[in-house]
Write a structure and sequence with these properties.
Layout lengths: L4 H13 L12 H10 L4 H11 L7 H9 L4 H9 L23 H9 L4 H11 L7 H9 L4 H8 L32 E3 L2 H5 L2 E3 L7 H6 L3 E9 L5 E8 L2 H11 L3 E2 L2 E3 L2 E13 L4
Parallel strand pairs: 1-7
Antiparallel strand pairs: 2-5, 3-4, 3-7, 6-7
Helix pairs in contact: 1-2, 3-5, 7-9
């Protein structure tokens, strides 16, 4: 019978033997990692620390991620494996589908992402997916290069310029009062504006947002403020991002889109509601 400690020793041996030899510790292989997760002899924090220290010698494939999840691996462990490949050649950038949706990137966002140390390949994918909401000129190119960017990023911005989506916020309106439309009355339901805290008390189905992977990697946290339109049946029918970190906004929108409220009545008639929703994102320590 193989002792329970042996696979864990094989998993830890590179790190433990490091002080005893001149050459660096070898990254963890796929088999050793799977066995260590299966035996649960180490806590998640300990395994993550070791992976960050010496890395893994394999790129995480979808089937590997599924196997780790089946064995009960914590998402933090899976993310550490994905981010700490130390084999031959660089790790592939994430697919465009894994990157956050949102409006075109501003110049300030591109500079901030570069200053945060995000890999150029990841930023290039993000620019390709969302575009840039600013024109490229000599001053902007210099700012990108000064933040650690490359000519490839400057070129990607130059060919990916898009107009930012412009949407006017709905006019303020007292709670319980129909919102003026500027048009002749229609057969549709009345529309009222309700303060966020008051409308929150009518929430009957609430799906918490998922923390975006890239935002977690960059240590981004904060509050996303959304302008929300709720239908007469209590379901969300429109969302506008009013403020907040762009890396978090798409997750906030995706969560709030599925929320359901108690219908609001005006003179006994179900009404649509305009309100604001705050979605807070806090990194776990």
């Amino acid at each position: 019978m193989i002792p329970r400690w042996l696979p864990l020793w094989l998993f830890l041996a590179p790190a433990l033997l490091l002080p005893l030899r001149a050459q660096p510790a070898k990254p963890i292989d796929r088999a050793g990692l799977m066995e260590a997760v299966r035996l649960r002899g180490l806590g998640t924090a300990e395994m993550v620390e070791i992976i960050r220290e010496i890395g893994v010698d394999f790129r995480l494939r979808p089937e590997d991620e599924q196997e780790l999840a089946r064995l009960g691996a914590d998402p933090r462990l899976i993310e550490a494996v994905r981010a700490n490949y130390r084999g031959a050649g660089p790790a592939p950038p994430p697919a465009a589908a894994e990157l956050p949706d949102g409006p075109p990137l501003s110049r300030e966002q591109v500079v901030l992402i570069l200053q945060a140390g995000v890999e150029h390949a990841v930023l290039l994918k993000l620019i390709e997916k969302r575009g840039a909401a600013f024109a490229m000129n000599r001053e902007t190119a210099a700012a990108i290069l000064a933040a650690g960017g490359s000519n490839a990023i400057v070129g990607a911005v130059a060919v990916s310029q898009r107009e930012p989506a412009a949407a006017a916020a709905p006019p303020a309106q007292a709670a319980g009062q129909p919102a003026p439309s500027g048009r002749a009355p229609s057969s549709g339901p009345p529309v009222v504006r309700t303060p966020g805290p008051e409308q929150a008390r009518k929430l009957i189905r609430h799906t918490p947002p998922e923390y975006p992977v890239m935002a977690s990697r960059m240590g981004t946290s904060g509050k996303v403020l959304l302008g929300v339109r709720i239908g007469a049946d209590g379901r969300v029918i429109g969302i506008q991002v009013l403020s907040g970190p762009s890396l978090l906004s798409s997750s906030a929108v995706a969560a709030v889109r599925s929320w359901v409220y108690e219908p609001t009545l005006v003179n006994g008639v179900p009404a649509e509601v305009l309100t604001e929703v705050e979605v807070n994102f806090t990194l776990k320590k």
